[in-house]
Design a protein that fits this description.
This protein is mainly α and about 200 residues long. It has helices spanning about 5-15, 20-35, 40-55, 65-80, 80-90, 120-130, 130-140, 150-155, 160-175, 175-180, 185-195; strands at about 105, 195. A two-stranded antiparallel sheet has the order 1-2. The longest helix is centred in the N-terminal third of the chain and has 19 residues, at about 20-35.
Length: about 200
């Protein structure tokens, strides 16, 4: 099976080949966009692939998968929908199936998870209060299941910036954690291996 990189390279001469990229990743982009901006997600989905098609010659073919690149485009388009996204978070309690907890890291990684009993409405308010950059980084990690390196590609920022943003988000979503002052090897392990699990 061809990699995304190979398909995109082929699409330069054969534009119709780009439809394979849509077929592979439309569902993931649609899900991410809908969670971010609700009904406006359809517009984000369409615009994401339109922008990607126009910019396909600029895709970094050293990456086999185009998903981080596509999610980066979607995230930038979502930024234009910030008002809609804020409304989405304020009405978080109405989102069907939202689990009332967010867990950071693995169970054995002490200090790397948020208390599992966080009330959904309060958490939604805290997420809405994050800066756009921090919220974007968190949701690419939690909902799109990207690695730190893939988030860096998606947002065009250094991996170290991804780590620092997620550490800042952890402190803001779990104020007690900041008071505990998790540092040293334990913190480093969280930076390397921690995975946010937020399910809707």
């Amino acid at each position: 099976m061809s990699t995304d990189s190979e398909i995109i390279a082929r699409s330069i001469e054969d534009p119709g080949a780009f439809s394979e990229i849509f077929e592979r990743h439309a569902r993931a982009i649609a899900s991410f966009a809908a969670r971010r901006v609700g009904d406006a997600g359809d517009d984000v989905l369409s615009e994401t692939f339109l922008v990607a098609f126009r910019r396909r010659a600029a895709f970094d073919t050293s990456w086999e998968s185009s998903l981080p690149w596509l999610l980066g485009i979607a995230s930038r388009l979502v930024r234009k929908q910030r008002a809609a996204e804020a409304r989405q978070w304020r009405s978080l309690n109405a989102v069907a199936g939202w689990e009332q907890h967010v867990q950071f890291g693995e169970a054995e990684a002490a200090g790397e998870r948020v208390d599992a009993a966080v009330e959904a409405r309060a958490l939604g308010g805290r997420i809405a209060a994050l800066s756009a950059a921090d919220r974007e980084t968190l949701l690419l990690y939690a909902w799109a299941d990207l690695t730190y390196e893939e988030i860096a590609v998606a947002l065009r920022i250094p991996v170290g910036t991804v780590r620092s943003r997620l550490n800042r988000v952890r402190r803001k979503l779990d104020p007690a954690r900041g008071k505990r002052g998790v540092t040293g090897p334990e913190q480093e392990k969280g930076d390397r291996d921690g995975r946010v699990a937020a399910r809707a």
